Amino acid sequence: MGVYEELCDAYWPEPSLDRPQLWNGVIRHAVQRVSPFHIIQHSGWDDPLGGLMMGLRESGEKTLKPRSPMSAALEDIPDMNAITMPWNDLYTRMLHKLVVNASINPLGALLECKNGRLTYNNPAGVRMLRQICKEAYAVLQHDLPPSESANTLADIVLKTVEITTTNTCSMLQDCQARLPTEIDYINGYLCRLAKERNLDAPTNQFIVDLVHTKEKLYMASK
């Protein structure tokens, strides 16, 4: 999260400029990189809710316009399982994915385990996931539907762990490959948003610092 804002600030700071249509999307495709040009796809192509959900932030609409050439091209790829959504619906999905990633990815990377080990016979792991969700909800509650709560976010995270129990999260894959992680666009995004809203996010900030420390150590030994 936050890439859209970075692009607009860097290249089109004024909406009146010739800003192109910038599509936002969220994916359900879980992919493990085994080696260069060799991946294992765990999920997404058969998800009834869509493997790639996309939409236009600029529209801000609750209904859909006719398909654009780009969205039509993606939707016509069967394995992509792509759908176009109204922005309000898509934004909720994006926030759910943000919380899922902020909970599972850094813990999987720091503990160097597959997703399922975070919760299997592991009450401390469940407490950590719930604490991240509690803090994330405090930051995002006014962006989420009224029916949402810290508990509903935790339920989504725990269900995702159950579905992806044998998966290796992308952040752990980055650490194993000694690559920079996406932590600044996940937990780091929550921390920046919290600061903008005069809120504290100590758990997420601690996680960001831990991941950056881990990055520093393995990058120095490359």
UniProtKB/TrEMBL annotation:
What Gene3D superfamilies does this protein map onto? N-(1-d-carboxylethyl)-l-norvaline Dehydrogenase, domain 2
Q: Kindly give the InterPro entries that the UniProt entry links to this protein.
A: 6-PGluconate_DH-like_C_sf, 6PGD_dom2, Ketopantoate_reductase, KPA_reductase
Keyword field contains NADP: yes
Superkingdom as given in the UniProt entry: Eukaryota
Q: What Pfam families does its record include?
A: ApbA_C
Keywords linked to the UniProt accession? NADP, Oxidoreductase
One GO term of the cellular component aspect? mitochondrion
Q: Please list the GO terms describing molecular function.
A: 2-dehydropantoate 2-reductase activity; NADP binding
Q: Please state what the protein is called.
A: Ketopantoate reductase C-terminal domain-containing protein
